[in-house]
Amino acid sequence: MSSTYLSFVWSRSRARGSHKLVLLALAEHADRNGEVELSLRDMAMLCGLSKTRVEEVIQALIDLGELRIRAAGAGRGNPTRYWITLRSVPSKRPEDEKADAGPDKSPVVTVPDPKPEPEKPFSTVQTSKPAPQPVEARGTVQPKPQTVGTFPAITQADVDAVLAAAGIAAPDDQPFYWSRKEHRDDLTALLARYGRPVDVLCADLRAALSKGKSLQHRPRRLTELSTLLGKGVAA
């Protein structure tokens, strides 16, 4: 979640009513660049609106200039990727400066960029001689940094896919239970433990269920799925 974008939607957005509610839902799930993947169904559930109304609101926010589509969705499990384009947010991407350079008749509130720090002077004379090595460091072997597998940032769609593969539904009295950030963090930890992406993890869960494995009770955390998956590859 990006607290920067959530704060700016509250204080800077010109949207009102259900438009601002949808923009706040997107900002709550946005990364530090203001980008977020959230399906129309999830937005409708979070905001208490119909999918048709959410589609109308999304188009209105795009027309208002506070939202942009980064990548259109490609069916179930691949929601559209949006970008919150509030002008007052200082983390705008360089490739979008040209697109935003045209005339804009809508009133906006901007925050001045901080003054850049002065560059440190450097010598223009280059030398091929290596820098002298400290005496105490000579002859020692520096360990190479270890690299670990990394995965893309976990989205709500990833959590929904894992839940579907494991046959887990939300509690009847808490329909938004699995939309919490702690469950996305749990899924990140689960992927790191087993060293595999979301689609492979889903396949492993379905395979485990087909072999007769099952959960003894309805899980409250995604880390409990390790009962189906067995021991992880990590130590």
List the helices and strands and how they pair.
Blueprint: H1 3-12, H2 17-28, E1 35-37, H3 40-47, H4 51-64, E2 67-71, E3 81-84, H5 156-166, H6 181-194, H7 198-210, H8 226-229
Antiparallel strand pairs: 1-3, 2-3
Molecular structure report:
The protein has 235 residues and is mainly α. It folds into 2 domains: 93 residues, Winged helix-like DNA-binding domain superfamily/Winged helix DNA-binding domain (Arc Repressor Mutant, subunit A, Orthogonal Bundle); 74 residues, no CATH class. Helix content is 37%, strand content 5%. It contains 8 helices and 3 strands. It has a 3-stranded antiparallel sheet with strand order 1-3-2. Helix 2 packs across helix 3, helix 2 packs across helix 4 and helix 3 packs across helix 4. The longest helix is centred in the first third of the chain and has 14 residues. The radius of gyration is 24 Å and the shape is globular.
